[in-house]
Amino acid sequence: MRVLTDPRPAHWITADVPFMANTSEYGESSASLQNYASTASAVKLASLGLIMGMSLLGNASLSLLLLKDRSLHKAPYYFLLDLCLADVLRSAVCFPFVMASISAGSAWPYGTLSCKIVAFMSVLFCFHVAFLLFCVSVTRYMAIAHHRFYSKRMNLCTCVAVICMVWTLSVAMAFPPVFDVGTYKFIREEEQCTFEHRYLKSNDTLGFMLMLLVIVGTTHVVYIKMLCFVYDHRKMKPAQLVPAISQNWTFHGPGATGQAAANWIAGFGRGPTPPTLVGIRQASHPGNRRLLVLDEFKTEKRIGKMYYLITLSFLILWAPYISACYLRIFARGAPVPELHLSAAVWMSFAQAGANPIISFMFNKELRMRLRACFSCCLGTQTPMEPYCVI
């Protein structure tokens, strides 16, 4: 019987053992990296799909409610409708391309022109929300501090003009980088086509990000001013006068200063309309009212709270991404951790679905109208108490 032996020297045979071990370890590490990459891609796709679905469902439902219910056809909700439509467009236009790039292995499977268009739309919607929230903060302050002027001027035409101005400013901010070669491009670390944030001496990234920060900061300053105004007027108490004796609204006595009739005109009166004041302030014509009564003040304050929470959520969800951009602006070659950057980008995506949740949670009127809409859809009528609208 023949015995097969290896013709190579003994030191060759022993040298192959560590080589084979290194090869197996390399194969195991590459397999683990592939598993990690596939798991991360699956998590990103699932989370972005959830954000996209919530954004489309929530914003579309709120938009239909605002369009259908005539009692919501007033200035604050015109701006909310514009916010919802912008978030729907962002979710339907930008997010599918991000999902396609994730599926392609963190690569852009389309051309350069399509990348610039998607990046332009992404930046446009970001600045649109920032500019619109600033304009809303100004109108909220006017509704509280200058209600007479607000009720006269803040009609449908004014709201349309403000919305058109906001879109114009957003286009002006997002369009110039289209002509800068290499400014709008696919950022592999962010899985999206967007503005390339480089060192401050490389392009105009600093001015681009400073504008966004100034807008958000100014919006909070306006809300702080409105809060100070409400706090100062909360401390004011009505004068305590000696009650007058009244017979058929003919006041006489030590307190007969006409204050009772003035209070009734201002909305603090109770009971039927005085005969001498019939026709001065009719509840059936809300457009003729110019004084901010207590119920209207509560409504305006509630709407202002809702918009401030929307503004605060915009700041919280975009703050990590903005901080990462400023790190790349001021620190040359400073790498942002991949996990932090991915979380920051996905938080900015989540902002598209946050507005409907905040609106329904912190606006009683929207919840009541939503329940009424559902009851109408089910064929049942729920009696509702009448209440004043602006």
Q: Which features would summarize this protein structure in a list?
A:
390 residues; mainly alpha; Rhopdopsin 7-helix transmembrane proteins; disordered C terminus; 4% strand; two-stranded antiparallel ribbon; 12 helices; globular
Nutshell version of this structure?
This protein is mainly α and 390 residues long. The protein has helices spanning 10-68, 75-93, 95-103, 112-145, 147-153, 156-174, 205-234, 259-266, 294-330, 338-350, 354-362, 364-377; strands at 184-187, 192-195, 245-247, 250-252. The termini are far apart.
Can you offer a commentary on this structure?
This protein has 390 residues and is mostly helical. It has a single domain, classed as Rhodopsin 7-helix transmembrane proteins (Rhopdopsin 7-helix transmembrane proteins), CATH 1.20.1070.10. Helix content is 66%, strand content 4%. It has 12 helices and 4 strands. Helix 1 packs antiparallel against helix 3.
Q: What is the alpha-carbon Rg in Å?
A: 31 Å
Number of domains: 1
Count all strands and give the number. 4
Distance between the termini: 106 Å
The stretches of 5 or more residues where confidence is low (pLDDT under 50) are 11-21, 238-242, 252-256, 275-291, 380-390
CATH class: Mainly Alpha
> Given the helix and strand composition, which structural class is it?
mainly alpha
Order of helices and strands: HHHHHHEEHEEHHHHH
Largest sheet: 2 strands, antiparallel
CATH fold field value: Rhopdopsin 7-helix transmembrane proteins
How much strand content do the residues show? Answer: under 5%
CATH superfamily: Rhodopsin 7-helix transmembrane proteins
Number of helices: 12
- Average pLDDT score: 78
**General shape:** globular
User: Do you know the CATH architecture?
Assistant: Up-down Bundle
- Cross-sheet strand order for the largest sheet: 1-2
Question: Helicity level, as a percent range?
Answer: 55-70%
Keywords: Cell membrane, Disulfide bond, G-protein coupled receptor, Glycoprotein, Membrane, Receptor, Transducer, Transmembrane, Transmembrane helix
Pfam family, one: 7tm_1
Membrane topology: Multi-pass membrane protein
Protein name: G-protein coupled receptors family 1 profile domain-containing protein
